[in-house]
Every structure is written in structure tokens, then in C-alpha cells.
Automatic annotation (TrEMBL):
Name of the featured protein: DNA repair protein RecN
Any single Gene Ontology cellular-component annotation: bacterial nucleoid
Keyword Ribosomal protein appears in the UniProt entry: no
Keyword Iron-sulfur attached: no
Protein role: May be involved in recombinational repair of damaged DNA.
Keywords: ATP-binding, DNA damage, DNA repair, Nucleotide-binding
NCBIfam families in UniProt: recN (TIGR00634)
């Protein structure tokens, strides 16, 4: 519950500090006194975006701080999820700097606004006229029914599975789009792939083919040079082998005279052995080299094909062509397997759809079970609020579409008069009736879930007399389970509160300021008497005020 609120330099508020109690608290004040300013400051605590125009003194920062006792709210898991420091006495602070920047803190740790909004929604429910209009939306109506049906866990599970279902649907659609595009390219990709497969590409093959081509294309010149080498090596009188043989014999004789010539002999012998081997290899080459025009044609064709493929695929070598072939194989394979992939994805969707249907049916059945009880309680409360003929016709039909909260199509119809036709709330109920219906719903909800602190902003607008008295009783009854605030202009409601605060304006040094003060018993009598009869209080107004308070 909200235990303290401090506001500094906000709108018409210079400095304000107030302590709140549990139970039913009343806030009153003349029109324009600043009740909306108080709500505006509170909304900043709940995560509303800040506005530089909110500063009373543009040269000073605005600070709004609220203290909440959250020991009974079971919020530890939320604090952990949002990475907040948990404290039973939690302090939320907002600061608006003169530069226009805004900062938010939970227990002195900085937080972002989205996280603060999540926490704020669990701390205070500020009921405004705008929220009364939400009563006419299906989303809100479902929230009420699901609260009574205790559908929280089922809805969480449903939303998780629905997300999976939609992801699968998206993937299936992408597969079908890809298939449509891939079919157009499939034949061309297959042609390109077959070309590369038939080329029987081998890494580094091109270099060896180029060498073979040069050899085959220059056979006569090679034969001529080999013959010349053979002659130089083997000519009987002046050939290299004959000369080396003679040189070896000379060194052999020298070695007999002195061992220092033995090294020369060894080297000559070694050279002769090398020349003999070279001569043998030249002979082999001569014997094995023949013109082969057929092979030359094959090699030439292969090189031209590789050159053409490199040009076509903008590749610099055979390795890149092989990589392109692999990519084409993948594309063709994916295209050829798309039907199987689409069938598999469709089967996954069918399985997921069946699971979703089971969860949605469970949600639907629990809704049907509580609708009669909700209808009965609302009609009973509204009868006490001066609407004895109010009737609801609430139906949830299990449909075919997966919505965000199940498969139900909700019909939430209302009739205010006996014999009247049922219609949508926004068409069948007046503003005052909508306020009473909303109060009835909040009263019912308070029995089933632990609502946060709730603040009713003039929910009693448009009613008076005994009806306002009944509305006050309902809010008083709600305050047994939660902290309730009511901003009101009705003395009958104001007299029901356990605590009473007054918002007022005053001029300080020719500057108008808004303030909030807690009234004691005598001050409450005066305030309620003024609400009954105006600033010129009559003795009957004072007596009536005392009677209401007692």
C-alpha cells in the first residue's frame, strides 16, 4: 500500500509531504484546486513519461517520491525478473531535471520506464473516467472473467504456445514464398550445376593441364633439344661423358702419386655418375615423347571449357568454381526438398494447433463456469446502486480463430430497464451507469484477486443521494481487503472514509500553490458541511455533516 508521498517543484506544488494509512481514504477539494496535479505526480511514479513543462521552477529539478509497503503483495518474483532490489518498504523516486531529462529509481537503483510501468501496474490502480470507457472493450471484459476463472496460468501457457504457432506459420509462409521463387530458378540452377559436374573439376588441375598443353603443342622443338642434349652428352670424341671419363682417368693416375689428388678423382667420378644418369634420362625422354594430336585436342578443349566457366561464373580459379558448384548443389537440393520441408512444417503446425485448441478449450470451459456467478453478483450490486432492473447477457462462444487470449468470441450485453433490449455497454449504459457498473466490477474483482491500492477519480460523478451513499458503502467494504482512495465531490461518499485529505490552493508571496492536508474530525465536519451547503455554512449543514460522519 502507499504509505508516503512527497512532491517537490511539480506544477503548482512547491513542496508537499503526506502520510497515508490503510483502509478508505477520501480526497476532496474545490474544482481546480489541484486534484489532477496530485494524480499527475502520482502517474510519474507509475512510469508515465515526464514533461519539462511540469516543473514549477524551471531552474530547479522536480522530485517525486513514494513509499510503498509491499510485504503482502507477493512481488519478489517480479522484482527478481525486473532486476530490482526487493525491500518490503519500497521507495520509488522520479526526478525531472531542468535539462528535460528524467530519471527513475527503485530503492535508489536506477531503472528504465518500461520496467517501472510493470511495477507501477502492480502497486496502484488509478481508476479514471478513461478507464470507465475501457469497460466497453472486450479486452477488459475478458480480464474480468479470467480473473474470476483463475485463468492466469492457462493464459500464460496459451500465449507461449501461440507465439510458437505464429512462428511456425511464418516459417511455412516463408518456405512457400521461397519455393515460388526457387521454382523459377530451379531449371537454370540445375543447368549450371550439371555443367560444373560434367567438367569434373579438380583443384590445381588447370596448372597441370596448361603444362601438358605446352608440352604437346611443342613436341618437335622438344625432340630437337633432347637430340641436341643427347649429342652433347654422348658424342664419341668431344661428348661430355667421354670428356669426363678421360678427366676421371687423369685424376686417377694423379691420385697414385699423392693422396691430395684423391679428392679430385672422387669429384670427377661423382660428376661422371651424374652425367651418366642425365644421359640415361635424356634417352628415356626421347623414347617416350611422341606427338599425340588427339590428346592435345582433349587438353585444349578442357582448358577452353575451364576458361569459359570461369568467365561465366566470374571465378578466378578452379577452386572457386568448385565452391560455386557446392552452392548450386545446395540450392538445387533445397528446392527439390522443399515439398518435404513444407509437409513437415505443416505437420508441426497441425500438432501445435491441436495443443493450442486443448489449452483454449480449457480456458473457455472455465470462463463458462464463472459467467453465471459474475452476472449474478453484478446484478445484485447494481440493484443496491439504484439499478434494480439491470441485467447482463454474457456469452462466450468457442470460435475458429486463435486470438491473443484464446478462441472465445465474447458477447457482453446489458439492459438497464425491465423489458428493454440487450445491447453493447457503450450503447446501453449512460455515463453514470457505466461508473456504477465499473465500481461493481472492481468490487467483485476485489473478492477474487489481490488488487493493488486503488484510487477512484470521481467515479461517483453523475450520481447523488442514496446511490452515492451506496457507492460509498461499496468502496468502504472494498477497503477491508485493500487500500482505497476516492477523489469525490459528494459529501455522502466523503463521510465514509477512515481518513480525509483536502486539496486546496493558496497564494504565497503572490504565487499560487497547491497543497494537501489531512483533516482532523472537526475539520472534516467543516469540509463536509461546505460540500453540502457551500462556503456559507448553515447550522443545518453542520448538523447534517455530523450526522453523516457518525
Amino acid at each position: 500500500m502507499l504509505t508516503q508521498l512527497s512532491i517537490k517543484n511539480y506544477a503548482l506544488i512547491d513542496k508537499l509531504h503526506v502520510d497515508f494509512n490503510d483502509g478508505f481514504s477520501i480526497i476532496t477539494g474545490e474544482t481546480g484546486a489541484g486534484k489532477s496535479i496530485l494524480l499527475g505526480g502520482l502517474s510519474l511514479i507509475l512510469g508515465k513519461r515526464a514533461d519539462l513543462s511540469s516543473l514549477k521552477d524551471a531552474s530547479q529539478k522536480c522530485v517525486i517520491e513514494a513509499v510503498f509497503n509491499i510485504s503482502n503483495y507477493k512481488l519478489k518474483s517480479l522484482f527478481k525478473a525486473e532486476d530490482f532490489d526487493y525491500e518490503e518498504q519500497t521507495i520509488i523516486r522520479r526526478e525531472i531535471l531542468p535539462s528535460g531529462k528524467s530519471r527513475a529509481f527503485v530503492n535508489d537503483s536506477p531503472v528504465n520506464l518500461s520496467s517501472l510501468q510493470v511495477l507501477g501496474a502492480r502497486l496502484i490502480d488509478v481508476h479514471s473516467q478513461h478507464q470507465t470507457l475501457q469497460l466497453t472493450s472486450n479486452d477488459f471484459q475478458f480480464q474480468v472473467i479470467d480473473a474470476l476463472a483463475n485463468n492466469d496460468n492457462a493464459l500464460l501457457n496459451y500465449k507461449t504456445e501461440l507465439k510458437v504457432y505464429k512462428t511456425l506459420q511464418k516459417e511455412l509462409e516463408e518456405l512457400k514464398v521461397f519455393q515460388a521463387e526457387a521454382i523459377k530458378e530451379h531449371d537454370y540452377n540445375t543447368f549450371l550445376l550439371n555443367e560444373l559436374v560434367e567438367a569434373k573439376l579438380v583443384v590445381d588441375e588447370e596448372q597441370s593441364l596448361e603444362e601438358e598443353y605446352e608440352t604437346l603443342n611443342n613436341i618437335e622443338g622438344i625432340k630437337e633439344k633432347l637430340a641436341e642434349a643427347d649429342h652433347l652428352l654422348s658424342e664419341e670424341e668431344v661428348g661430355i661423358v667421354a670428356a669426363l671419363t678421360s678427366l676421371k682417368n687423369v685424376f686417377q693416375k694423379l691420385a697414385t702419386y699423392s693422396s691430395k689428388y684423391e679428392e679430385l678423382y672422387n669429384r670427377a667420378t661423382s660428376s661422371l655418375i651424374e652425367m651418366d644418369d642425365l644421359y640415361s634420362e635424356v634417352n628415356d625422354h626421347q623414347e617416350n615423347i611422341d606427338a599425340d594430336p588427339d590428346r592435345l585436342e582433349v587438353v585444349d578443349a578442357k582448358l577452353k571449357m575451364l576458361h569459359s566457366l570461369k568467365q561465366k561464373h566470374v571465378a578466378s580459379n578452379v577452386a572457386e568454381l568448385i565452391e560455386i558448384k557446392n552452392q548450386l548443389e545446395e540450392k538445387v537440393s533445397v528446392t527439390e526438398n522443399l515439398d518435404a520441408n513444407i509437409l513437415k512444417k505443416s505437420e508441426e503446425i497441425t500438432t501445435q494447433e491441436s495443443q493450442l485448441n486443448t489449452i483454449a478449450k480449457g480456458i473457455h470451459d472455465k470462463r463458462l463456469k464463472v459467467i453465471p456467478e459474475l452476472k449474478k453478483q453484478l446484478e445484485t450490486i447494481l440493484a443496491d446502486l439504484g439499478m434494480p432492473n439491470a441485467q447482463f447477457k454474457i456469452e462466450a462462444q468457442f470460435g475458429k480463430t486463435f486470438f491473443a487470449n484464446g478462441k472465445d468470441e465474447l458477447s457482453f450485453l446489458f439492459s438497464a430497464n425491465k423489458g428493454g433490449s440487450f445491447n453493447e455497454l457503450k450503447k446501453a449504459a449512460s455515463g453514470g451507469e457505466l461508473s456504477r457498473i465499473m465500481l461493481a466490477i472492481k468490487s467483485v474483482l476485489a473478492k477474487y484477486i489481490q488488487l493493488p491500492t486503488i484510487m477512484f477519480d470521481e467515479i461517483d460523478t453523475g450520481v447523488s443521494g442514496e446511490i452515492s451513499n451506496k457507492m460509498g458503502d461499496i468502496m468502504l467494504q472494498m477497503s477491508k481487503r485493500m487500500q482505497v482512495f476516492s477523489i469525490t465531490h459528494l459529501p455522502q461518499v466523503a463521510a465514509k472514509g477512515h481518513s480525509h485529505f483536502k486539496v486546496y490552493k493558496e497564494d504565497v508571496d503572490d504565487v499560487t500553490q497547491t497543497n494537501l492536508v489531512k483533516l482532523n474530525h472537526d475539520e472534516r465536519i467543516v469540509e463536509i458541511a461546505q460540500m453540502l451547503g457551500g462556503t456559507e455554512m448553515s447550522s443545518s449543514a453542520i448538523a447534517h455533516a455530523k450526522e453523516l460522519l457518525n
